Give the backbone structure.
Amino acid sequence: MPSSAAPAAATGRSNSSSTITADMETGSHELTVRGYSGTKGLGVGKCITSAEFTVGGHIWCIRYYPDGDDKESADWISIYLKRVDTGKDNDDVTARFRVSLLDQAGKPVPSVNFSSNLVTFSSATASWGYHTFMRRKGLESSSFLKDDRFRIRCHVTVVKIRAETTMQFHVPPSSDLHQHFGDLLDSKVGADVKFKVGGETFTAHKNVLTARSPVFKAELFGWMKEKKATQIRIDDMEPRVFGAMLHFIYTDSLPEIDDGDRRVMAQHLLVAADRYQLERLKLVCEDALCNFIDASTVATTLAVAEQHGCHGLKEGCFKFVKSSGNMKAVVATDGFDHLMNSCPSVVKELLADIFP
């Protein structure tokens, strides 16, 4: 009689692997509170909302509670980050954020600089923040409140976690073409044109300059080209400005600029962009200068806007001057005297706009 035997165990092996990836997209928004004393007394639990901004494909805003968001924080300023588009596909958004009070140089104040853990913004919980962000008395007695104005910055990192098999290829969402062109500029490989700017010499590539600027195209290949010159002399421009412009031409971005130098560099670069018909750089500079408009700068900024056809920047200057209480402070500046001498027509246009 044959003996009974247990069934043979199934043999074989199945291998699989996967990857968990956390994609992070970051952005920041700077909120300036002008006329701080006028916002006090709004009431506990009542807020003023910033303009909306986009980070990670989602819309956000900052909620500023000058009298705190509840009774416990009545002596404090409360700050919250709110996700505006909570109805979009009913999806939750995972993010971390940092809210900082800025000093006069635009740098975060260490004692008022708060970072969150990773939190979820959903339809049920659309806001996260700090109900005791800073004491009102502390702000009012500090140097961070100047001319009844202070600034805060909210830095947001949206985290998108996904799982995928190892064999799937992840294509970066943005091109690295600008990095290659930046390396080309730095390495000087194949450079075929030189520029003398002040006491410095810059080398570049004719074809790149021609593709980006119609003025360079005319200078290097058109009727303006200098056939025998070994290098082209650039007058009325600082070397650092020309270098920053070259960096933008090759990479479509600006180099690192110190916070205290950004407004002046933006003005110089706007002039250079207009000179070489670099329209995108011109718009970038207009946008940057709009963030620096105040009583001490608006007149000189308006002069630049008028001289170089920057309609958006001009409109921003007009809007600031027309705001309550600003006109008197602007007229008292040296910049306004310069504006009257250099652009009398725009002063007439401004006065006609204010006193129709």
About this structure: The chain is about 35% helix and 30% strand. The radius of gyration is 28 Å.
